[in-house]
Write a structure and sequence with these properties.
12% strand, 60s Ribosomal Protein L30, Chain: A, 249 residues, 41% helix, five-stranded mixed β-sheet, alpha+beta, elongated
């Protein structure tokens, strides 16, 4: 009897599909986990941001009138001064009247030689009237001592300002400073802000409870620090007459 020939065993060439399907499933699960984690982190960041804002807002400090320029190393910025926005009619008219009177006062001070031309600029922003005192007219380089020649102009400015909430901000350029008195631009900008605050308060009619002072070093520029002209604009003290004061605690 002839032997029955053994049929060759059938080889399954598609077994790799099982491993491939398992791999795709695991990869999909991995990306789902990553996506879920990223969403959770965003939620936590939002909660942290809200908590910090609510903590600092009542004091009226650490909130720059110029929020557009980023906090970047070196203080370089492509954005310039805050964009002027419409203000409420009644309060806006009062602000415009104050701005007009201050402009006339400063023009007289420039004409009398009390302050150099261009050392004070003003603009209306969403927060209120911003009066920028540039370094050249009020401080020596690297110093927080107000020039004696500019004190009469500041006294007149203080007498013209209403007894309303003010925020005084010190700003510098991005050139590092390291002296016995000021280790960094943080100390210099803060010292200049408080020096101007003291002079304004010496007028006697401004309530100290309405005044907040802070230093921002080089981190809120209004011009590029790449040029000397830009750095000169950034070395300033801003007096902000707030039109929407932060509610007191």
């Amino acid at each position: 009897m002839s032997r029955k020939k053994k049929q060759p065993e059938h080889v399954n060439h598609e077994r790799w599909l099982v491993s491939y399907a398992d791999f795709i499933t695991l990869l999909f699960a991995f990306f789902v986990v990553l996506f879920a984690s990223s969403q959770a982190d965003k939620k936590k960041q939002s909660q942290l941001s809200s908590a910090m804002q609510s903590a600092f807002s009542p004091l009226g400090v650490f909130e720059a009138h110029s929020r557009t320029p980023p906090l970047v190393p070196g203080g370089a910025a492509t954005n310039v001064a805050p964009v002027s926005l419409p203000v409420p009619t009644e309060h806006g008219e009062a602000m415009k009247d104050i701005e007009k009177r201050l402009s006339e006062l400063l023009a007289r001070q420039v004409a009398s030689g009390g302050i150099p031309p261009g050392s004070v600029t003003m603009q209306m922003t969403a927060e209120g009237l911003v009066i920028s005192l540039h370094e050249a007219g009020f401080f020596a380089s690297g110093s927080a001592e107000v020039r004696a020649a500019s004190i009469p102009a500041l006294a007149s400015l203080a007498a013209t300002l209403p007894n309303a909430p003010l925020r005084i901000e010190g700003h510098t350029d991005n050139v590092p400073i390291h002296t016995l008195q000021y280790a960094t631009n943080w100390e210099l900008s803060t010292a200049r802000a408080t020096a101007i605050a003291r002079l304004l308060l010496s007028s006697g009619h401004i309530d100290p409870a309405n005044v907040a002072a802070a230093g921002y070093a080089e981190y809120h520029p209004i011009a590029s620090n790449a040029t000397e002209a830009g750095r000169a604009q950034n070395r300033r003290v801003d007096i902000i007459l707030l039109q929407h004061p932060t509610p007191s605690r």
